[in-house]
């Protein structure tokens, strides 16, 4: 805040409150206000300096790690290949949980089957257009079901154990009535499709 604005605030305080203040008290009050504002300014500058020093420290740590990895790679070039292979294997394991493009319809039929097997009633299933242009596409969808609370929890457990990856982004469970065990569950989820 510019000093001009601070000065105007101080003068407006004295003009807005026409109480009798002796000149010495005005000066002391002004000094106290300036000291308080100076302290706030100092604290904000100190916080910025602390933030900058933390960011610099993190940057240095990252550079040290990079240099350490570079030295390890120079000493053992096969280490990099083994890390790449490890990540590749992890991706392949994860890819097995994605939905093959030819099985998307069957995936949603399976979900409908899970809903009915857990004695829930499907209210709505909204499938959004796929996103992505590479070998993987994000498939977002929303489901709304009705059922007893225990059956809805059973459905959630079945979805968690489902062999295909389902990332639940949002879930809402609302009771039908105040003392009823019947609920409506709405969830937003996404999975991934592997192109054939």
What does this structure look like?
This protein has 196 residues and is α+β, with helices and mostly antiparallel strands. The protein has helices at 3-16, 23-75, 77-95, 104-117, 149-161, and strands spanning 99-100, 121-127, 136-148, 167-175, 182-194. Helices cover 58% and strands 22% of the residues. Strands 1, 2, 3, 4 and 5 form a 5-stranded mixed beta sheet that branches. A hairpin with an 8-residue loop joins β2 (121-127) and β3. The longest helix is centred in the first third of the chain and has 53 residues, at 23-75. It starts with a helix and ends with a strand.
Keywords:
Alpha-Beta Plaits; single chain; 2 domains; five-stranded mixed beta sheet
Q: What's the helix and strand layout?
A:
Blueprint: H1 3-16, H2 23-75, H3 77-95, E1 99-100, H4 104-117, E2 121-127, E3 136-148, H5 149-161, E4 167-175, E5 182-194
Parallel strand pairs: 1-5
Antiparallel strand pairs: 2-3, 3-5, 4-5
Helix pairs in contact: 2-3
CA distance, first residue to last residue: 60 Å
Count up the domains: 2
Average pLDDT confidence is 84
Count of helical regions: 5
CATH homologous superfamily title of the largest domain: Ribosomal protein S6/Translation elongation factor EF1B
What general form does the structure show?
flat
State the helical fraction.
55-70%
**Residue runs with pLDDT of under 50 for 5 or more positions:** none
CATH topology of the largest domain: Alpha-Beta Plaits
Global structural class: alpha+beta
C-alpha Rg (nearest Å): 31 Å
- Tell me the CATH architecture of the largest domain: 2-Layer Sandwich
């Amino acid at each position: 805040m510019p000093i001009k604005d601070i000065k105007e605030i101080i003068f407006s305080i004295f003009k807005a409150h026409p109480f009798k203040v002796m000149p010495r008290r005005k000066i002391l009050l002004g000094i106290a206000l300036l000291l308080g504002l100076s302290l706030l300014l100092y604290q904000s500058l100190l916080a910025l300096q602390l933030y900058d020093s933390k960011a610099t420290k993190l940057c240095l740590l990252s550079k040290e790690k990079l240099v350490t990895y570079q030295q390890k790679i120079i000493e053992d070039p096969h280490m990099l290949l083994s890390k790449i292979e490890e990540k590749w294997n992890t991706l392949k394991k994860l890819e097995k949980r994605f939905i093959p493009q030819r099985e998307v319809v069957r995936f949603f039929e399976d979900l409908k089957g899970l809903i009915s097997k857990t004695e829930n009633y499907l209210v709505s299933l909204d499938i959004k257009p796929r996103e992505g242009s590479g070998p993987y596409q994000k498939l977002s969808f929303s489901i709304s079901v009705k059922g007893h609370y225990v059956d809805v929890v059973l459905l959630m457990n079945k979805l968690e154990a489902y062999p295909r990856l389902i990332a639940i982004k949002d879930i809402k469970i609302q009771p039908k009535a105040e003392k009823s065990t019947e609920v409506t569950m709405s969830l937003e989820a996404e999975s991934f499709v592997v192109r054939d």
